[in-house]
Design a protein that fits this description.
Elements (H helix, E strand, L loop, with lengths): L4 E3 L11 E7 L9 E3 L2 E8 L1 E6 L2 E6 L2 E5 L5 E4 L8 E7 L35 E3 L2 H20 L4 H46 L7 H8 L3 H12 L3 H18 L17 H6 L2
Helix pairs in contact: 1-2, 3-4
Keywords: DNA-binding, Transcription, Transcription regulation
GO molecular function: DNA-binding transcription factor activity; sequence-specific DNA binding
Organism: Cohnella rhizosphaerae
């Protein structure tokens, strides 16, 4: 990314304010303007598809993607000519907008010092980007719509209302980060549990089995186990066992002197080793 411009808050904020909401149709590739700024920006992809270049990273984006851009971080949105129009909402603010004690600060992480977020902040889990789920998207669409109307209307006390909305939005962001972190932490366990079941099936494929019994080995519900097994292997548990039996029968025909199950590495069937390595 080229050096780009550095935008100053005074270029965007109304006199005496430190917040602004901007709805923007992003440029087609080649017309983007990489920039940094001396304030914090929360970027929400409201519609369309395209790309977001942040530092040296390029993200493919679509509706529901949310980015936290700290001060002095260069970034730019853009889209391909064939992409649907890429529309973003950008919330520009200084931390002091929500808490006067933070007026000297520009960094988003200074909010950890505010009493406003002491119960919702999770150390180490704030990330640059977040993919909102369908429910979170509905909540953000509604909340940002309220903020836009309040900002443009400028009715008495609008700054206090905007401040309350921003606090709500950031708390919802923190919940999203926590949700994603929890999912990331669960993933290794899911992988290891399914691998254990595959090893079991590789050595007990002659025995009749019940799906409920396999699920008990993982402590997952039967329905969730079935879903996870198929997502992981690309087949149902029954299909996997049938394939193991066929492979073992073929092997025994080719080498009848070899003991049953000998030299049978787990997860070898049809590239399952490669499938699992990417889970």
């Amino acid at each position: 990314m080229t050096l780009g411009a550095v935008y100053l808050g005074e270029q965007f904020f109304r006199p005496g304010e430190s917040f602004r909401i901007v709805k923007h149709s992003e440029a087609v590739i080649g017309g983007q303007r990489p920039h940094a700024h001396d304030f914090v920006e929360i970027c929400y992809v409201y519609a369309g598809a395209g790309y977001h270049e942040v530092g040296e990273e390029i993200y493919r984006v679509a509706k529901g993607d949310l980015f936290l851009i700290n001060y002095e971080v260069k970034h730019a949105f853009y889209r391909d000519p064939e992409d649907e129009e890429l529309i973003t909402y950008n919330l520009l603010f200084l931390p002091g907008f929500m808490d006067d004690s933070l007026l000297p600060f520009q960094d988003f992480t200074s909010l950890t010092m505010s009493y406003l977020f002491k119960d919702s902040w999770t150390e180490g889990r704030v990330r640059e980007n977040l993919r909102l789920n369908a429910e979170e998207q509905r909540e953000f669409d509604e909340l940002i719509g309220k903020m836009e109307r309040e900002y443009n209307g400028q009715l008495e006390g609008y700054n206090a209302v905007l401040r309350a909305y921003m606090i709500e939005l950031i708390v919802k962001m923190m919940r999203g980060y926590q949700r994603r972190s929890a999912a990331d932490e669960r993933q290794p366990r899911r992988k290891s549990e399914i691998e254990a079941v595959l090893r079991y099936l590789d050595t007990h494929y002659r025995e009749p089995f019940r799906l409920a019994e396999l699920a008990k080995r993982t402590f997952f519900s039967k329905n969730y186990f079935s879903q996870l097994f198929k997502e992981t292997t690309g087949m149902t548990a029954m299909q996997y066992v049938q394939q193991v039996r066929i492979e073992e029968a073929c092997r025994m025909m080719q080498d009848p002197d070899k003991k049953d199950g000998e030299d049978r590495p787990g997860r070898r069937v049809c590239g399952l080793q490669d499938v699992l390595s990417g889970v």
